């Protein structure tokens, strides 16, 4: 059975036909909803996936257009399906891992399943004689519009601790929101850059757009602190103006409150008002 799947995936998703991306996650995380939202632009009614669904997708991002074969695979969470799922991920260029943020009790299960599948994928690639090159893992913290959603910071902390050796980024998304405000354009914009980075001969650190989510910094860097500072400098160059950033802060409208936002607000206040303003 597995050998048949292996031959089929190699036949239908050859490397010269563009990127192949697998969409994975536990049930009810909206994998199929995402696939058809990206391919049709509409939220469609779906049923639990048995096997897989595949679509050729073109996604508009803030800075580019990303085209790929999207493969929504069912069965995540079932131990007997893992080896079959690993055949799909072995031929893929990236993994999109969906999380149901409105179900906090299953977050540990989702993380464990992601770890197992990623490890099996790396092992399969090694068995096939492929170099152990990193592949992007885009984690979508879906259903962030629900009142009981797990915070993106908590998801980032857990995934960054457990999967620190991978090029990984966590984005907050909602598949039922209008596409422009769903978080998906920024998420797939990062994935586009990440795919270009890992397939180039001299990949550099993969940056993410400001406020988009929480990054697990590239482990290939020899100095994570210098890399982080470099990332912040790059983000500040493309971010909103100091006055706009300060207005977002006063109106509680910052996309996220991470280390970058914390340090930048302190810097903006210092340069605009001086030390006395911070004291008051």
From TrEMBL:
Record bears the keyword Methyltransferase: no
Chain sites annotated for binding Mg(2+): 32, 49
GO molecular function: GTP binding; GTPase activity; metal ion binding
Residues noted as binding GTP in the record, renumbered to the chain: 25-32, 75, 142-145
Keyword annotations from UniProtKB, A to Z: GTP-binding, Magnesium, Metal-binding, Nucleotide-binding
InterPro entries registered for this protein in UniProt: P-loop_NTPase, Small_GTPase_ARF, Small_GTPase_ARF/SAR
Pfam family name, one: Arf
Domain of life from the UniProt record: Eukaryota
Name by which UniProt lists this protein: Arf family protein
Organism field: Volvariella volvacea
Lineage per the UniProt record: Eukaryota, Fungi, Dikarya, Basidiomycota, Agaricomycotina
């Amino acid at each position: 059975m597995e050998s048949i799947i292996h031959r089929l995936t190699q036949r239908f998703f050859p490397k010269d036909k563009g990127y192949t991306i697998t969409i994975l996650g536990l049930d009810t995380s909206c994998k199929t909803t995402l696939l058809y939202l990206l391919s049709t632009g509409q939220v469609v009614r779906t049923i639990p996936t048995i096997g897989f669904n595949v679509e050729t997708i073109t996604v508009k991002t803030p800075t580019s257009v990303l085209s790929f074969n999207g493969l929504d695979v069912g069965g995540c969470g079932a131990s007997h399906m893992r080896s079959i799922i690993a055949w799909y991920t072995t031929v893929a260029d990236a993994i999109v891992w969906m999380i149901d943020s409105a179900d906090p009790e299953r977050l540990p299960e989702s993380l464990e399943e992601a770890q197992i599948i990623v490890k099996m994928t790396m092992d399969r690639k090694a068995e096939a004689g492929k170099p152990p090159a990193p592949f992007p893992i885009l984690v979508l913290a879906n259903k962030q519009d629900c009142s009981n959603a797990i915070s993106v910071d908590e998801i980032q902390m857990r995934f960054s601790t457990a999967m620190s050796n991978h090029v990984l980024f966590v984005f907050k998304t909602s598949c039922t929101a209008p596409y422009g405000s769903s978080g998906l354009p920024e998420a797939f914009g990062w994935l586009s850059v990440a795919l270009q980075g890992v397939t180039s001969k001299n990949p550099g650190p993969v940056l993410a757009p400001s406020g988009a989510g929480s990054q697990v910094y590239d482990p290939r860097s020899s100095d994570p602190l210098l890399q982080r500072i470099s990332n912040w400098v790059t983000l500040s160059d493309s971010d909103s103006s100091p006055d706009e950033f300060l207005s977002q802060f006063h109106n509680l409208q910052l996309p996220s409150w991470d280390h970058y936002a914390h340090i930048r607000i302190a810097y903006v206040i210092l340069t605009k008002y001086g030390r006395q303003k911070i004291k008051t």
